[in-house]
Amino acid sequence: MKKIILLGSTGSIGLNTLKVVEDHPDQFEVVGLAAGRQVRPLAEQIRRFKPRWAALRDASGFKELKRLVNGSRTEILVGEEGVSELAAASPADVVVVAITGAAALKPTLSAIAKGRRVGFANKETLVIAGELVLREAKARKAVLLPIDSEHSAIFQCLQGNAHAPLSRILLTSSGGPLRRVPASAFGRLTKRQIMRHPRWKMGPKITVDSATMMNKGLEVIEASRLFGIPAGQVEVLIHPEAIVHSMVEFVDGSVLAQLGVTDMRGPIQYALTYPGRLSSSLPALDLVKVKQLTFEAPDRKKFPCLSLGYRAARQGGTAPAVLNAANETLVAAFLGGRLPFVRIPSGIERVLDRHHPLAHPGLAQILEADRWAREEARGIIP
User: Fold this and answer.
1) Which of 170, 184, 274, 293 has the largest count of CB atoms under 10 Å?
2) 298 and 235 share a domain?
């Protein structure tokens, strides 16, 4: 049985990971769970899965968690240090990183330092510190397995083709909740309209990123770093059916695609079972029922965050960390009712304009760029 440590167990990816575990109780055992501040859901998971360890990043909920799981044999860790300690804990065969945002960086590095197999659904880690993370993974012989549906698709298409020269990566996007909404109407949209994604059930931050298409800007950077290809050779395609999860094109013109039903349990299960595969409880893909697959180019004028992602990728160094930090700060302000939705892209661009990227940064320099960008972004919020 594979022993699983799950970081971010109460979020969308975390919950789907636990569904995969429950579908295959003879294959997987949860030995560690970590959450940010969701005390009661974490307590319920501890009672259900009886892990050896659990971690709560928000220390203010520690006493309540201890009370709720009184009598459990699970060792409770607390704070950012506790989450990082859990990521490095033994025994564990796979560490699934489903923590949102830059908060995932340190726990990911802790897991890598132990030579772990790391399944990551957190794109920000490779965005802000891809060069450092990949260098450490190589040195420690850690295996990085993407869980994002698009990057999992690319990874799967490259199996058996690792040395075949790539021409392009074709990164698909559903188009998000605002694909058919004219840009002139963005300022009149309610928060509820912006948060209504047509295909995926996701957390609030990534749903906003989908609405601005910043999620694709970040994924372009992630794909470029993970698969060693210039960002200019990563092309985004709008694919509203969300059946083709991504494609790769080789220099001979051959294109390979990975298709599947729209459900995150697919890429999660592949990361847990790689290089093997297990049967799945997901419904089979019925292409006759789908009827057609459509593709279109993204409107970069309507969604400037996509171009900002390409810009940060070209600049390199600390620029992607600044892009991500500014975006996280401004999205949080929008979700908190302190910033209009239409101000997110211009605010990110303003922070990028003020930044002078540092090439080949170490961890301390990345964290400083992150801190600086958040401070700059907060100065934009009314």
Assistant:
1) 170
2) yes
> Strands 117-120, 94-97: parallel, antiparallel or unpaired by DSSP?
parallel
Residues 138 and 22 both lie in one domain: yes
**334 and 260 both lie in a single domain:** no
What pLDDT is recorded for position 196? 82
* Segment (H or E) for 13: helix 12-23
Domain of residue 214: give its range: 152-264+284-303
- Integer angstrom CA distances of residue 238 from 16, 249, 306: 25, 17, 12
Q: CA angle at residue 97 from 270 to 280, to 5 degrees?
A: 25
In the 8-state DSSP scheme, what is residue 285?
Answer: P
DSSP, collapsed to helix, strand or coil, labels residue 34 as strand
354 and 249 share one domain: no
- Kindly tell me if the per-residue pLDDT of 87 is higher than 90: yes
The average confidence (pLDDT) of the chain is 95
| DSSP code, position 115 | T
> For the domain that residue 368 is a member of, what is the CATH number?
1.10.1740.10
Distance CA 22, CA 211 (A): 32
Q: Is residue 308 part of a domain?
A: no
Two tokens at 311? 């810009």
Q: At what angle do helices 343-354 and 304-315 cross, to 10 degrees?
A: 20
Residues linked to residue 94 through DSSP beta bridges, in sequence order: 4, 117
SS3 content of the chain, % helix, strand, coil (to 5): 50, 15, 35
Residue 244: strand, helix, or coil: strand
Q: What angle (nearest 5°) sits at the alpha carbon of residue 6, between those of residues 5 and 10?
A: 150
Q: What are φ and ψ of residue 245, in 5° steps?
A: -85, -20
Residue 169, classed as helix, strand or coil, is: strand
Helices (H) and strands (E) in the chain, counts: 16, 11
In a domain, 110, yes or no: yes
pLDDT of 274 higher than 80: yes
